[in-house]
Input
Amino acid sequence: MTLLALSLSILLAACKPDAAPAAPADAAAPVAAVPAAAEPTAAVTTADAGAACTYADFDTFLPHFGREIALQETSVADPLLSERYDTESQDEPTLVSGKVPLSEVTWPVMPNPSGLKDVGREMQVARQDDGTMKVLIRTPDTSNQQSYYFAQRPCWQLVRMTDESI
Output
């Protein structure tokens, strides 16, 4: 019986080295690598793209955008659509549009939301029908108001600003 147990032990020990390398070789085989490599090339959803953004949620993004010029510099469309009313032309103010290259944008492009009350201004945020977010910053009882439009491409980005002051 002891001889039989000893023989089985030797036989099992001899089999283990052959079995052990087979498992890592199988794990490293192209079959295992293909699904992992294929995942990133699959259709990217907005949720997947948002995972790569520092602030995927707009309510989190906006306060940071307002106070961090470095974030503004990386989160503004190039070119930025800029609109303003020309009050010196014709009888009625005319909306004038233009595209401002990022190199010509004046920083900060938007005031810090946390300091608005201190200067008598207020902010309203609303989702538009097309999914963009509109941030209206205004001084009550005046025409002093600016609108900032953000789109998720895939991260939040300022794509248009309108100075509606007359």
About this structure: The beta strands are 76-86, 94-100, 122-127, 133-138, 145-152, 156-163. Residues 2-27 form the longest helix (26 residues). The two ends are 104 Å apart (CA to CA).
